[in-house]
Amino acid sequence: MSRHVTFMTIDDAAHYSPGERAAIVAAYPEHEREARARDIPVLGSGRIFPVAEALIACEPFRLPRYWPRLGALDFGWDHPSAAVELAWDTEADVVYVTNANPCAWRPRSTLPSRGCKPSMAWPPPWATACW
After folding, report:
1. 130 - beta bridge partners?
2. Residues 123, 3: Cα–Cα separation, whole Å
3. SS3 34
4. Biggest alpha carbon distance in the chain?
5. How far apart are the first and last CA of the chain?
6. Residues 6+ apart with CB under 8 A from 49
7. E strand residue ranges, 1-131
8. Pairwise CA distance, residues 18 & 24, whole Å
9. What's the pLDDT at 116?
10. Model confidence over 12-25: pLDDT tens digits?
11. pTM of full prediction above 0.70
12. What are the respective helix, strand and coil percentages of the chain, to the nearest 5?
């Protein structure tokens, strides 16, 4: 059996006029619009916080060595595992996600020692790690 996945956006719904499509998209909460109208992100359940990514994202920059950092891991028994690295700008009281591995690097219901290695070094050599 072969599989096929069809990706569609609201723009592919030709039975709606452009005005109707715009009204439908405008009716979604702002943080859900890309997921519901454009299928972004494709996998997962979409954004859960009512904050647009553009409001919290920034261009990459070199992190000062003195910022405290933390690595955290969710082993995920009945859900995929995930790992994240954080850096804290103590002067501005802002926490940055500096690296994340939200993909399933270990199948669910598998011991951590039996899964494949995450795509990022774990724990990061500079970080305090928690799980």
Report:
1. 72
2. 37
3. helix
4. 57
5. 40
6. 31
7. 69-74, 82-89, 94-101, 128-130
8. 10
9. 46
10. 888 999 999 999 99
11. no
12. 20, 20, 60
